[in-house]
Amino acid sequence: MKIDRRSFISLGVGVVAGTTLSPVPWKLMDDISIWTQNWPWTPAPKGGADSYKTSVCTLCPGGCGIQVRKIMDRAVKIDGLPEHPINQGKLCPLGLSGLQFLYGPSRVKSPMKRTGKRGEGKWQEISWDEAISAVTKKLKELREKDKPHSVAWVSGADKGTIPQLIGRFLTAYGSPNFIRPPSVHDAYELSAYLMQGQEGSVAFDIENSDHVLSFGTGMLQGWGSPVRMLNIYGEKRDSKKIVQIESRLSDTAAKADQWVPIKPGTEGALALGIAHVMIKESLYKKSFINKSAFGFEDWTDDNGTRHIGFKTLVLKDYDPEIVAEITSVPKSTIEKLARRFARANRPIAISGRGEGLLPGSLDECMAVHALNALVGNINKPGGVSVTSEPDYAKWPEVNIDKTASRGMQQPRIDGAGGSKYPNARYLLHRLPEVINDTKGESPVQALFVSEANPLYTLPDTKATKAAFDRIPFLVSFSSFMDETALYSDYILPNHIYLERYEDVPKPAGMVQPVIGLAKPVVKPVYNTRHVGDVVLQMAKSLGSFIEKAFPWKDYRAYLKTVFKDHWDQLEDKGFTEVKASEDKPWANRFNTATGKFEFYPSARKHPSKKDKDKDILPGFSPVPIEGKPDAYPLVLMPYDSIRLTSGNIGNPPFMTKTIDDTVLKDQTMFVEINPKTARKMGFFEGDRAVVTTPKGRAEVRLHLFDGIEPGVIAMPKGFGHTAYSKYLAGKGANFNSLIGPITDPMSGLNTAWGIRAKIVTA
Amino acid sequence: MNTNDQQHPVSDTASPETGDAPEKRKNGSGWIILLFFVIGFIGSLLGGWLVFPELLYSEKQQPIDFDHELHMAQVYEGCQSCHYFRKDGSFSGIPDLYSCSGCHQYPMGTNPEEEKFIEQYVRPNKEVPWLVYSKQPDCVFFSHAAHVKGADMECRTCHGNMAQSNHSRPYQENRLTGYSRDIWGYNIARLGKPKYGLRMKMNDCADCHERETGHKGACFQCHQ
């Protein structure tokens, strides 16, 4: 009897055989596979009762109604609200990605005080009391120094009660410097004011129009209310012809009935060329022109001075042959465009580039608007009308003291409404220039920024940063760690739109006077506070008459008093129609000096004060772009995409995922170039290159694209973030860092649609 | 040379067979090897069939000992009084604290378990961490509505006759997966009739579906 190695091998074989015939391996295999599904880092949403809350999306000014599906306390899905008149149940990719803003990593989680250098990202969390008292201490200090006007507030919007609350706060405090970022609606509204004498927002009744002549408007790239436009394209497309005049084959151009490629920056000339054909061939609406227009024919003023009219100017200077040369659009095309436009039943002409963040040339806007007048389709269904703002926000009178009154009488820092730019309301793009050009102390001693990200969106990032460096006190109210927040001294984070109350005024371009109410659909996720409440608390902390100007407990209480009868409907349905004083916008009368539509806008003030007829009438002068052609042989233009946000809201990861790999690959973005230009320069598809402009440089790759004119290169807007989170920062380059502003000498608006550039191999 | 060459390998191979093996057998070492094999075989069979199931599961008690029969006598709509369908058709499962505290804000009887419930959960407004015997992994999609409303099945078919239970039975938790032993079944070989209600592994679903509908169903019906 001997136990040896073999006995143990035999035991092992026995164990293996026995185990195989036992449930151990089979049961464990099953259990282990289930165990792997329950690793703690595997996301598994909690179950529970579901509910829906209605609200309004405020990620863009589109004003879409949304319904948010919740499981217990957590929001799990955002959909369009079926009964909402703007979006009728549909929603854009940004709106659908909304929850990534709510739960994403770029939120500012509590009030913060900067501890490192500006932009370094070193913060100390502070309490709300500390934050508000730090800000009001600075405000008190500036008032004591008799400098309330050195405070400026950049607010993302100027309509709605929150911006108005901020405006009122500034008035009571003594600063005229409420500034809103620019948009194409500045140009629309200014044109309408000058030519029609009407103040309010310009509405394009595209739904009921049968012919849309768009001068580069990105109708499918985020212009106006994006979902409204998508609906028009999706459901009402057959009833209308859409002509897109644009130098690049954009999404809008690709989906149009006709794409007219044009030399960039010459759109205004084409509009006048079309006007020429309409007048020459007598295709304009004589009943409207004869009865309701002024300045069409030549005229003599009270002093006996002879003035030329629009007709003379256009017939003399904008013959299709000349225009064909300027625009590179063939003469026959210009004539066809004019005839089709004139013969349509309800034609609309729209100006504005891309999504509409650039106001552009006032002359161009007026020239295009003149086409609407030539077909008499103004203040009519299926035409262009001016709708006055619903006046639901009623404010009691503010009694201000002498310091505040002196402050309010100071000229605005951005120069809007002053002697140089009397017609402009806000000129944010001029702010860096004004600050950088001032010797000694900066005219802005404290800058407040809410729902805006000027350090990213303003042209010439370098100059903007230099200007911000000279502002001693920077406060951001951003919900996200955006570029401006990262550069501030204090961040007082606002609730995001899913956590706060806010009225949403009628979106730009819409006819229906829909007012929405954004409501908290979830409890605030972090230690944030409604900016409206913070303003009220700041007023309270400043005390005396400023406090008295805000007699409400909190923002919601104020909002409730504003909407009175509408409140229940707003709370319940999420929207209501608050009518302005008149029911039909098209019943409005022209409110100009002559009581007519003015081709010759008598209210247009010219800075040279010579008031030459040609400067007053809508004409065409090439909008200059920066850079010398010999050093920079190419022209760089931006383009917008519905899949890429370029404003103050950073692109959410869901949307970044949808971007083609000919637009962004890994961390590098593509610049579009015509194959002919590329071949001439020796470039191939996907080549790495460096784009240099007079303002900056960017490393890119090249995408050969037949849809762009030779000699022009195009770059998407919305990349090149340096803040937010790792899901957005470091992808591509910011177009705004490659371009500088160009101020329209007449209106003060920014007209820089492009810049000269060169590309070299990287 | 030739014969020698052929003989050598023959005698080499023959020697262990003819010489050594009978020697070992005589020593009884072959029996020992067999014995060890049998020990290993039988031991692991016993371990696998009898000990392993006991080791795999730990036994836990429900936070509150719940009397279903007592509650059934108090409510009007049977099981659905507490285990109801929500408006969207989803099934509420075990009632939350809010539902319970509708009646149990204050003690209704003298049961110490009720007192414990009010003391430990209702007052501090804390959800009861019930252990769910029929909880499935997150990747399993199961619709109560399709079975109860669509196929008109009774709760007891799958969950056993809960209505007559007076005490919460111990919850046997799989130490690896965390799920209840009810899912696999109490018989480790999954033979015989299940002890409580029905077993709830995938094959159990498929068997019933095949019996009742003639088809086992497709993967994506449950794995959504």
Protein described:
The complex is a heterodimer of chains A (762) and B (224). Chain A is built from 27 helices and 30 strands. Chain A is an alpha/beta fold. Chain A folds into four domains: 5-37; 112-184 and 392-577, 3-Layer(aba) Sandwich (Rossmann fold); 201-218 and 232-387 and 589-616, Dimethylsulfoxide Reductase, domain 2 (3-Layer(aba) Sandwich), CATH 3.40.228; 634-761, Barwin-like endoglucanases, CATH 2.40.40.20. In chain A, helix 6 packs parallel to helix 21 (531-542). The N and C termini of chain A lie far apart (83 Å). Chain B is mostly helical. Chain B has a two-stranded antiparallel ribbon with strand order 1-2. Chain B has a domain at 61-94 and 130-222. Chain B is globular.
Topology at a glance:
The complex is a heterodimer of chains A (762) and B (224).
Chain A: H1 5-20, H2 24-37, E1 50-56, E2 65-71, E3 74-80, H3 93-96, H4 98-103, E4 112-114, E5 123-125, H5 128-144, E6 151-155, H6 161-173, E7 178-179, H7 184-196, E8 201-204, E9 211-217, H8 226-235, E10 241-245, H9 251-254, E11 258-260, H10 267-280, H11 286-292, E12 293-294, E13 299-300, E14 306-307, H12 310-317, H13 320-327, H14 331-343, E15 347-354, H15 362-374, E16 384-387, H16 402-409, H17 431-437, E17 446-450, H18 454-457, H19 461-469, E18 473-476, H20 483-486, E19 490-491, E20 502-504, E21 514-518, H21 531-542, H22 544-548, H23 555-563, H24 567-573, E22 575-577, E23 597-598, H25 613-616, E24 634-639, H26 653-657, E25 664-665, E26 668-673, H27 675-681, E27 688-692, E28 697-704, E29 712-716, E30 755-761
Parallel strand pairs in A: 6-7, 6-17, 9-10, 9-15, 10-11, 12-23, 17-18, 18-19, 24-29, 26-28
Antiparallel strand pairs in A: 1-2, 2-3, 4-5, 4-19, 8-16, 13-14, 20-21, 21-22, 24-30, 25-26, 26-29, 27-28, 27-30
Helix pairs in contact in A: 5-21, 6-21, 7-15, 10-13, 10-14, 10-15, 13-14, 17-19
Chain B: H1 2-27, H2 29-56, E1 57-60, H3 68-72, H4 97-101, H5 112-122, H6 144-150, H7 155-159, E2 171-174, H8 181-184, H9 202-213, H10 219-222
Antiparallel strand pairs in B: 1-2
